[in-house]
Design brief:
CATH architecture of the domain at 5-128 and 204-264: 3-Layer(aba) Sandwich
Strand content: 25-35%
CATH class of the domain at 5-128 and 204-264: Alpha Beta
Distance between the termini: 23 Å
Radius of gyration: 21 Å
Largest sheet: 8 strands, mixed
Number of helices: 12
Shape: globular
Number of strands: 14
Length: about 350
């Protein structure tokens, strides 16, 4: 069984500088975040369509949950729904999102603003466009600190320097005065992480934070997030199409396809005993995972269906090598195969 560890911490603060004394132990206590039967959709001039269907998962303090799937599977929409940042014409149509027992979907916009960036922070997919090019890096980080921590700009700037130092940006006092267009992609992503961690959030949502980075920079970004999880106790939802990154980051994994979670379990179960054909296909598509990389990479034929043209029955059945007759007619529910391993597949039910 995959070992889930959290660190109990005694924290002493001087400004934003944090000293943490750690001791290992199993993850205990109530869920920090509960997403129950979440559905969301968009209204367009071509009609209404659903992009999320009955998404459910939990997250404990200090835990890392990976959400994986191809582009168009609903990963980013799930994160934006939690943040209350769905784009224009997007709407949550069903479900609940409980943070520390409070349903975020019932909060007014001003109440949600107090949580967003303070208790729940997000690293967006493209840091270059997420950062404002007409304001300095220091002003952007300090603004979030001043809003949520109610401190002076001078004090916020000191904390911004500490945040940049935390993510190992060299000469942070100088970088504070620079602009995003002066930064590389990897440096911009570090700044986004610094901004997200500046208010010491309980949950960090990371949406494809390593997608556009080289392998060396990817490794550095992953190390930074592991550091935040272990030293600050930050829970992380890590969204990626890269199973290798997920394997390094996450203790549990949710596999999404066509707006649904099709498999959910501990990382060890997913990588050693994948049950859904889609998960199996993703794993076989990874270089070096099977047979020492000697075989040709597996290809999942076809593509993710558009929400406005969803097939009847199981949405994966047109691409599935194990398709049964029932797959064309009925959508399987997400059911527990073991206590912590859930899968949505008629093939598994037929065993």
């Amino acid at each position: 069984m995959y070992k889930r560890l959290i660190y109990q911490a005694r924290i002493v603060t001087h400004g934003w500088c944090v000293k943490v004394q750690l001791s290992g132990g199993m993850i205990m206590g109530a869920n920090l975040l509960e997403v129950n039967n979440l559905s969301a959709g968009f209204s367009t001039n071509k009609g209404n369509f659903q992009v999320l269907t009955e998404i459910s998962f939990t997250l404990k303090a200090g835990e890392a949950l990976g959400i994986v799937g191809e582009s168009g599977c609903g990963k980013s929409v799930t994160a934006l729904s939690i943040m209350g940042l769905l784009p224009y014409l997007g709407k949550v149509t069903q479900g609940n999102i409980y943070f520390e027992g409070n349903d975020l979907l019932t909060l007014k916009d001003k109440e949600m603003q107090k949580i967003r960036g303070n208790n729940i922070a997000m690293i967006f997919q493209d840091p270059i466009t997420a950062l404002n090019p007409v304001h300095t890096i220091g002003d952007q980080i300090a603004e979030a600190i001043m809003i949520h921590k109610k401190v002076s700009k001078k004090a916020a700037m000191v904390q911004a320097i500490d945040a940049l130092r935390l993510v190992m940006i060299p000469m942070p006092e100088l970088r504070l005065k620079e602009y995003s267009y002066q930064m590389s992609g990897g440096m911009s992503q570090r700044i986004m992480i610094a901004m997200a961690l500046s208010c010491n959030p309980r949950i960090l949502l990371a949406d494809e934070p390593t997608a556009a980075l080289d392998v060396t920079t990817q490794s550095q970004i992953i190390d930074l997030m592991i550091k935040a999880k272990e030293e600050l106790g930050t829970a992380i939802i890590f969204i990626s199409h890269n199973l290798g990154v997920i394997a390094e980051m996450a203790q549990r994994v949710a596999v999404m396809y066509a707006g649904r979670i099709v498999e959910l379990s501990y990382s060890s179960d997913i990588f050693e005993d994948a049950l859904h054909p889609y998960t199996e296909g993703l794993l076989k598509s990874m270089p070096g995972i099977h047979n020492g990389g000697k075989e040709k990479l597996h290809v999942i034929n076809g593509s993710v269906p558009h929400p406005m043209n969803m097939p009847a029955g199981c949405p994966f059945h047109p691409r599935c090598p194990y398709m049964l007759d029932i797959c064309k007619e009925r959508t399987p529910n997400l059911v527990a195969v073991t206590r912590e391993h859930y899968v949505s597949c008629w093939k598994v039910d037929a065993k």
